[in-house]
Structures are given as structure tokens and as C-alpha cells.
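TICKET #2291
ISSUE: user wants both folds in one file
ATTACHMENT 1:
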Amino acid sequence: MKQTIHDRVSGTPVRRGWRGLTVAALLAVGLLAVTACGSDDDDPAPLGTSDETAVRDLEREQAKAWAAGDGDAYAATFTVDADFVGVTGELIQGRDDIAASMRQGFDTFMKGTRVSVPDRVFVRFPTAETAVLITWTCILRTESDECSPQAESIQTRGAVKQDDRWLFTSYQNTRLNATPGT
């Protein structure tokens, strides 16, 4: 089964098969599980609050650090013990290792790239101190704002509120149009 989705910039059809739908379904199930884990005593933050603004601002802070090629600033948006799963499936644990990996990437294959403005954004607050942020973006390799279908991905971030500041504690990046076996 194929689903036709139009590219947000060019308007041309982008074909997505079972793989993209499966990823979306798994993320939806994961969000339901995270939401169900909150206790009845928790007071989740409603959407449109200063907490939602802070979590979305944190994502924009990451994008700004990426555009500047600043691995340390990018990693500063994470907790000290954060878990980061990159688009190729590598697991990076801890803010220091995330910073080192991002510095290496910005010095080599990610040099001069930037993250697009998210096409879609979902924010949920399973508890007052936790948030789930899902964004759809792509990596832009030129001055153009046009995303190629091969560069589109979905990111799921878990955030926690520590000392009145939101930080990401987990990050998963999944390529939407990856070819199986590559």
C-alpha cells in the first residue's frame, strides 16, 4: 500500500510506503504508552503554555546551534546523561559524547548544513515535568529551503524540566525515505 503525500515546498508528490507508515504507527503507540505511564497525581501542562513555548524554543536553540556548526551549543540542549540515537542508528550517551560527535560531524560531513524549519510539530506533556516533542524536518545542504525527499526525517525528543529549565534527555532521528538495506 502506498500513500501519496505532497512535498511541503515544491508541491510534487512524494511516495511513502509501509516503512514510513510503520514508523509513524510505532511512534504513535509509543506516545500513548508514555502518556499512560503518568500518574493520576500528575498535572500535565496544557498546550499553549509557557512550558510548551520553552520546549519549542529549545528545539529552535538546537537548530540555531546546528546552523552555526556549534557542537557544544547543540549538546547544551541535553541533560548530562542524555541518550541520542542518530539517523543511522548509532547510540550516543551523555552530553559530552553528543558534543564530541556533533563537533566531528560539523567538521566533516555535516559542514555547512542546517535543519529546516519543522514541517509539523507535536508536543505532549505526560506529566508536568516531562514532555514529548515530535518534529518533521530535513537537512538542507544548500542555501535553498527546498527539502529533498532523501533528507526528510522525523525526530522524537523526550524533555525533562530541571531547575525550572527544560532540557532534552532523549533523541531519536529516523529517516523517512530510507531504502531498506542501506
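ATTACHMENT 2:
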Amino acid sequence: MKTFLLSLLAAALCLHPADSLKCYTCESAIELKNSKCLIETNCTSEAMYCMTTHAIAHEETAINKRCAAECTSRTVVAEELTVSDSCCQTDLCNFNGDEKEAGERKRKEVEVSAAVSVRIGVLTLVIAVGFFGSLLSLEL
């Protein structure tokens, strides 16, 4: 019976609900430093994009990062103001507002995630073999 319960526990560890998109967001609506826009946020299920807006005027930059249901990458220039929106669709891809800049960090996260998945898979296999072994010993 213990083996059966351990097998159920291992199976439960391998199952997890679909994760929502994770984006970096800012402490307030508009920030002057990227370091204040690195809050990891779980987006709602409607949000399909991480969106970053940079507004540059007179050599000053304002930043806003958020989850967005819709997003179009664009740049608008008017007089001495430049506003650019960038969009991406992978977890924490808006580190600097550019998906390419987050690529290396994301690769490292995937490597760690894969290693954990392999360990859980091996644990599950070991428990399952023990479970079936105990069933066979009960039948003998």
C-alpha cells in the first residue's frame, strides 16, 4: 500500500497546470530605470504578450513594462519625443524590451528546468518499478 501511495505522489509531482505567461513589470506606471522594472509577474490567461514601452525625450528615458492581450511593435517619432513599443511572447522575455537580449538567460532556465524534469522522471520510473515489483510479489 505504501508503494502505491508513493507512486501516486510521484505521478502528482509530474503533473502541473499550464503556466501563464510571465513578464517583467515596473514598480510604478512609469520608471526612469530598468532596474525598477524587473518585477516578475504572472500574467492573466488573456495576456499573450510581454510589452515594453520606452519614451525618450531630451535624452531622458521613461520605461513601462506590462502584460498585454494585444501588442504591436512600433516606434513613433514626433519632434523631440520617441516612443517605441516592443512585444515578445516567452516568459520574462522583456528584460530589456528585446527578446534577443533575454535569449541567453532563457536558455539557462531551460537547461535547469530540463535537468529537474529528468530527475523527476527518473524518480517516477524508480517508484513505478518498485510498485509493480510489489504487485508481482503479492501475486506469488
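RESOLUTION: both attachments delivered.
EXTRA DETAIL ON ATTACHMENT 2: The two ends are 17 Å apart (CA to CA).
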